[in-house]
Design goal:
The complex is a heterodimer of chains A (292) and B (567).
Chain A lengths: L3 H5 L18 H15 L6 E5 L14 E4 L5 H11 L4 E7 H7 L1 H10 L4 E6 L34 H7 L4 E6 L3 H13 L4 E6 L11 H6 L1 E3 L9 H8 L5 E8 L6 H4 L17 H9 L3
Parallel strand pairs in A: 1-2, 1-3, 3-4, 4-6, 5-6, 7-8
Antiparallel strand pairs in A: 5-8
Helix pairs in contact in A: 2-7, 4-5, 6-9
Chain B lengths: L2 E3 L3 E9 L3 H14 L3 E7 L6 E11 L10 E6 L4 H5 L3 E9 L10 E3 L2 H8 L5 H13 L4 H10 L5 H24 L2 E3 L11 E4 H11 L4 E4 L6 H10 L6 E4 L3 H13 L4 E5 L1 H17 L3 E7 L16 H6 L8 E3 L4 H18 L2 E7 H5 L1 E4 L44 E3 L13 H22 L5 E3 L6 E6 L3 H11 L4 E6 L1 E3 L5 H7 L2 E6 L5 H10 L5 E4 L8 H9 L2
Parallel strand pairs in B: 1-8, 2-5, 5-6, 6-7, 10-11, 10-12, 12-13, 13-15, 14-15, 19-20, 19-22, 22-23
Antiparallel strand pairs in B: 2-4, 3-4, 3-16, 9-16, 14-21, 18-20
Helix pairs in contact in B: 1-4, 1-5, 3-4, 3-6, 4-6, 5-6, 7-8, 7-12, 9-10, 15-18
Classes of the chains: A alpha/beta (292), B alpha/beta (567).
């Protein structure tokens, strides 16, 4: 049953906002699913901030009724960290592509996982560059022929989930945009998990990637069994390393790490976000007076 | 030999990195300040943790003298190789106290083997305190107060360390006293009671206090000499003041994190040097496009590339003036004294927030590391204003308004949504490619209207001397005090100093003032005269003379006096 509160929060943008995605794009099911998840979790739009970089996936916030910061290519994660650290009450979700998060922004991914803000990072992983018209992405598979790799891709593709597990990310999962039902469950858990959450979503690019299609992803993935232990790091590694068929679902989840915004040390006594605070002149003056 | 310790006395301590120059100068400067002397200290050092050769200059005077003088009145080598390092600064009257150096006039040296004395007390670590004691003894400063200072200084280290240091001080003191007696060294100095309660702080700490006074509550930065002091200051004191401080893992992350924080309602600052700022340029453009306030503090050092990491320069003005792709506005400030740094840092934060633009504070290694005595009253509580509005349901982040400023809200503050975009956007923040309509309207708002606002709010340069003087000597940033003292030395009423605390945009009176002068001289620490070029372009004038230096060293009062006398 849909409650009144939920229908009010459909997260739809006005109809005059033109969607720039191609018909059949794997971004559509991600957008629709994310809206359902947020209805389900029951958060008001004003308390959600979406952050993205550049690329077709990074346009998602344009089509979702919430706050957003659509920044630079590769730089969504530090922006999201800054937002969360200034206002821990906001639900902060990064939604961007594989080129953005794993390529241009790879360095930020490493250190954001280490820093561990309570944000969710959704990576639309289509194994190709769409907006720049079909070049290799960091997740492109070896041998893929593109306009800029006419002899086929020679670089080893990044394994984002193994990478995140190696850095002890508190929540690491993989979903398939071709299966919105399962994707919805995974995204819900990711957003509700406290700490840095990574969801790598296989998302077919129907224009530029003729290899990794809806069908291909269906054939090359499987869901992990019900009794899989998500807290076992070594087992998670083993699963993450599988490449014949990619495991889908929550690979790794734990609560063993302190969250960044809890550790910065200013919210334990006063939980108000920075924008609500007045400058505390007396503490600042006392500091000055204590100097010699 | 008969020697006289005169008012305005320069002590230079030199040694290898790790030999304790900083401890000697720390004890000495604080003790002298507590005795009522005005103290100004500046250091030069090499980019390494151990070895090399570094020096600190301590200028002691009965009135405020906050400028670098090169001539040395008392040289204290903590290492025999120190002589070579600073020999061009010796004069006929220089006194030498400390280690001997083969080949250097041995009769002139009041020889003290600091390490030998320290070892006799129990540890060579006490050598620094012996040296401090010897200098105080030579100057005839009362020995009891320094001993008390040592107690306070080492209180956490325990009674044993306190006692040993006090003993080391006394041993050194007696040596100094003995030399004063045997060499007929006399000391005549007025002291100033008021100095005792003054702050004794570095240029970078003045920026730190200014940032706190200006309401900063977010700083993410990446360490880079000589800019790191601000990050350290905020990390040390930030938590108590409600400031989120985070060391990023690169400059790109640092500035993007701060932009995110500012978008969410923090008042953010980043600190870096030229090379680090080069990495931030794309995000600078992002801040401008999204109209997210940010203040960027840059401590300059000589480039290109890694350059001279621990030396001083004013080489990054052009970088800061033109950084960032696309066209947008900015304000650039260059404080030259601690009080200016305090006020200007707060001002830069305020201007960034008020006009939703990037602002810059340009300082340099010399200013960062220089230590000043400052009357606490000069660091007054400054006006502070927040410019955020609570959003209505139909809130538009980039609303077109008459004055060009869109009321700024942040996520969660009110019922509206705050949508920011690095693409060209419409009033609500959504991507647009409407070139003749929205693009033109946004440029009008973001660029042309704000340019006017920044020009109208520009700070006027300070004129030291007569405004209508025939010759105007122009400087910006940390050269202020050195230039002022050099011009004073000329004793010519027709020569005045014009010191710019804001270098861009220029105050509207600047053009008229410079045009009226017979001669305009610009002094700066770079090879091309970056500010002189800017003045020529902005004021449509010809700069008559440029006095430039780009070897990594600051100007000294003597050097500038001589150069100005030739004009």
């Amino acid at each position: 049953m849909i409650t009144a509160a939920q229908t009010k929060k459909d997260f739809n943008v006005p109809p005059e906002v033109e969607n720039q995605w191609c018909p059949g794009c794997g971004n559509f099911p991600i957008l629709q699913t994310l809206k359902k998840v947020m209805q389900d979790i029951d958060i008001e739009a004003k308390n959600i901030t979406l952050v993205s970089g550049i690329g077709q996936a990074a346009k998602l916030p344009q089509y979702f009724k919430a706050n957003y910061f659509n920044g630079l290519h590769g730089r969504a994660l530090p922006v999201a960290t800054g937002i969360k650290a200034s206002n821990p009450k906001q639900t902060v979700i990064v939604t961007s592509g594989d080129g953005d998060v794993y390529g241009e922004g790879g360095n930020h991914l490493i250190h954001t996982i280490r820093r561990n803000p309570n944000i969710t990072v959704i990576v639309h992983d289509n194994m190709i560059y769409g907006l720049t018209k079909g070049q290799a992405a960091p997740t492109s598979q070896e041998g893929l022929v593109t306009p800029t790799q006419p002899q086929g891709v020679i670089d080893e593709p990044i394994n984002p989930v193994a990478f995140a597990i190696s850095l002890d990310a508190p929540f690491v999962a993989r979903a398939n945009a071709g299966d919105p039902k399962e994707m919805q469950k995974i995204l819900k858990q990711a957003i509700e998990h406290k700490g840095f959450s990574l969801v790598d979503i296989f998302q077919p690019c129907v224009v530029f990637n003729k290899v990794n299609t809806y069908q291909w992803f269906k054939e090359h993935t499987y869901y992990m069994e019900e009794d899989y232990d998500v807290s076992d790091k070594v087992a998670a590694f083993a699963r993450a390393a599988e490449e014949e068929k990619f495991p889908l679902g929550v690979l790794y989840a734990h609560n063993r790490r302190t969250v960044f915004e809890d550790a910065v040390g200013i919210y334990n006594v006063d939980d108000r976000p920075l924008y609500m605070r007045d400058m505390n002149c007396s503490v600042r003056s006392a500091l000055l007076a204590s100097q010699k | 030999m008969s020697k006289h310790i005169k008012d305005d006395f320069s002590i230079v301590i030199a040694g290898q990195a790790g030999q304790g120059i900083q401890s000697v100068s720390h004890i000495l400067t604080h003790v002298l300040k507590l005795e009522g002397y005005h103290v100004f200290a500046t250091k030069e050092y090499m980019s390494r943790v151990r070895g090399g050769m570094n020096s600190t200059t301590i200028r002691v005077s009965s009135i405020k003298r906050d400028a670098y003088k090169s001539s040395i009145d008392l040289f204290v080598p903590l290492d025999p190789n120190g002589y070579e390092h600073v020999k061009k600064r010796f004069t006929d009257d220089t006194m030498f106290l400390g280690f001997k150096n083969n080949g250097f006039c041995s009769d002139c040296i009041m020889e003290v083997d600091f390490i030998n004395i320290a070892q006799a007390i129990g540890n060579r670590l006490y050598a620094n305190t012996v040296a401090a004691g010897a200098i105080l003894g030579l100057m005839g400063v009362d020995v009891e107060q320094p001993k008390e200072y040592l107690r306070a200084f080492f209180v956490k280290k325990g009674e044993e360390v306190i006692k040993k240091n006090q003993e080391a001080l006394e041993k050194g003191y007696k040596m100094g006293e003995h030399f004063a007696f045997s060499n007929d060294v006399t000391c005549s100095f007025e002291t100033d009671e008021d100095v005792k309660d003054d702050l004794f702080i570095s240029g970078i700490d003045a920026v730190g206090f200014g940032a706190l006074a200006g309401g900063v509550d977010f700083c993410s930065s990446y360490p880079m000499s000589p800019s790191t002091g601000l990050l350290t200051f905020l990390a040390q004191h930030g938590k108590d003041c409600g400031v989120v401080v985070e060391q990023a893992t690169d400059e790109i992350g640092a500035i993007n994190m701060t932009i995110g924080a500012s978008y969410a309602g923090a008042r953010g600052i980043v600190t870096t040097a030229g090379g680090g700022f080069a990495l931030m340029c794309e995000a600078l453009s992002l801040a401008a496009m999204t109209e997210t306030p940010i203040t960027i503090h840059i401590a300059q050092r000589p480039g290109p590339a890694t350059g001279l990491p621990t030396k001083t320069a004013q080489e990054d003005l052009n970088l800061v003036l033109y950084a960032g792709h696309g066209e947008f506005v900015r304000a650039i400030y260059a404080p030259g004294t601690p009080v200016e740094a305090y006020e200007i840092t707060a001002h830069a934060l305020d201007v960034a927030d008020k006009y939703q633009v990037p602002t810059f504070i340009l300082i340099d290694q010399y200013f960062v590391d220089a230590l000043y005595t400052i009357d606490k009253e000069e660091f007054a509580v400054l006006p502070y204003q927040k410019y955020l509005v609570e959003s209505e349901r139909e809130y538009k982040r980039y609303a077109i308004t008459d004055d060009g400023i869109s009321p700024r809200s942040v996520p969660g503050y009110g019922d509206g949504l705050v949508c920011a975009d690095s693409d060209e956007h419409d009033e609500s923040g959504r991507i647009t490619e409407d070139m003749d309509g929205l693009r033109m309207q946004m440029m009008e708002k973001r660029f042309f209207k704000r340019k006017k606002l920044l020009e109208e709010s520009a700070l006027e340069p300070e004129v030291i001397g007569k405004k209508s003087a025939k010759t105007l000597v122009v400087c910006w940033g940390s050269n202020r005090n050195v230039v002022t003292e050099a011009v004073e030395n000329l004793e010519d009423k027709e020569v005045s100093v014009v010191s710019f605390v804001q270098v861009y945009p220029l105050h509207k009176n600047v053009k008229k003032m410079l045009t009226k002068a017979d001669k305009v001289v610009v002094i700066e620490n770079n090879a091309t005269g970056q500010f002189a070029n800017l003045l020529e372009k902005e004021c449509e004038i010809k700069i008559d003379k440029r006095i430039l230096k780009w070897n990594g060293e600051l100007f000294s009062v003597e050097e500038l006096t001589e150069k100005l006398q030739q004009i």
